[in-house]
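Q: Structure for this?
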Amino acid sequence: MQITPLGDSALMLVFGDWINESIHRQVQTAWRALAAEPLPGVSEVAPAYTTVTVFYDVRRVVEAGAPENEIVNWLSARVRERLKDPPKSAKVKPRHVEIPVCYGGEYGPDLGRVAAQAKLFPDEVVKRHSRASYRVHLIGFAPGFPYLGGLPKELVTPRHAKPRMSVPVGSVAIGGEQTGIYPQSTPGGWNLIGRTPLRLFRPEQNPPVLLQAGDEVTFKPITPAEFAQWQEVRA
Amino acid sequence: MIRVLKPGLLTTVQDLGRPGYQQYGVAVGGALDAFAARVANLVVGNDENAALIEIAQTGPELQFERETLVAWNGGDFEPTIGGEPLPRDRAVRVAAGEKLVFGVARAGLRAWLAVAGGIDVPLVMGSRSTYRRAGIGGHEGRPLAAGDVLPCYGPGERSAAVLASLKVRGQRGTVWTVRPETLGQPAPAGVVRAMCGPEWDWFAAEAQKAFFASAWEATREADRMGVRLHGPELLLAPPREMISAAVNTGLVQVPPSGQPIVLLPSRQSVGGYPRIAAVAAVDIGRFTQLRPGEKVTFSRIPLVVALDLQLKRERDLTRVRLGLARLAG
């Protein structure tokens, strides 16, 4: 692992330069170890595909005992110590979350496009998309938006040349090799194949998100009638 | 209570932001120039993190329903109070029913207006900042609109003491001022200090040279997430793709267009473009005031100097805080 400054208020821990399961596990372990009990002066810790970023407040790092001309080295040493000896509270078993999805129709206007690209019938696309198991690599782009790894290769579909002005909340989509779920209505260029009635961003709860980095995700096909029922339960 | 008579272009309630949630894709956000906001709050006797009003480009018209103390700083919107000019960087008395009018920005682009006690909007995820992308925080998760009414906390002890002494002397505002841009060791006008970014080595030698040698022009493409600059095309040698990684406020990303973007506090939590440089935290506020067409150059400093500048500015602010406590007491 390398530690690189990310400006004068963060350090970036780099675990590799490609995406794979082993690097993902290292990122997860480091993130949990640093987030479980924050180091002095550290304001937050965020994981990405191959990196973990440690944001700090320089004033508080100095108050915690860092010599003024050795702030980064001092903090890097604390980070390395912590990673060698993580607190017990950092051990979290990966969760499995099942996401109900109503595929196709008005909820998945691009299911046909993905099927044509894959040379499959739409119901075969649904079968393959919902049979696979996905890993949440990181939450980013928008509040609660999960970047999922594990899309079956045959379902890889290029993004739209012209993004939609507004993608409906809960849309399950494929963009290149990635699949994800839109927690807010935003512009977006991914292929919409279905929609989930679950809320991914829940600011009134802690944590305010349904999915977190490290979670394992599967999709479960539901009918439009079941979709409507879910929404009633929610309301 | 503050009644919004006219909302202005993009007037929002902000505090020092919502740290701790970037791991869930939530921006820190908050006042774009956090230091300016902290100073405005201190001047009216508030906690540095009290919720205040951020103003952009065209200011609002506000009516105060009870007597209070206000302070503003940032860009110059030629504000008036009951028709008279409202002096900047000092605590100013507002009578019940008086109208505070911010015009169009004549210099800079944004200003911060603190009100004694702070604005009383609900805490969402630990902050009162408006976060439009998620529709949370501030006043109903959105910019202010005509007819909105903002409840405020009552003035604290220090604010009340300043207010009382102004009234006794029949003065509108305090004689003393605190100008945020004089604290620490400010860079000369038109210059921002920056360090090399994590992907500095990815850039062609000409791009590295051009970055620190050129005058960069601010474009119209600027919002709370970032400011796009215009200048020489910064190219990678050889071209390559980056895996999305966390970003930080002040980082300078270069998309394939070769035109850099300086990230501001409402930025996304991850980015996929090479990061050529990082603006020193003490100079990030400069990018919140750049008007389209204005130029900046980057001056290269080492990380230790950037950290030292932050500490110096914090020490200056501590002195101001102690001085103000004495004044009010």
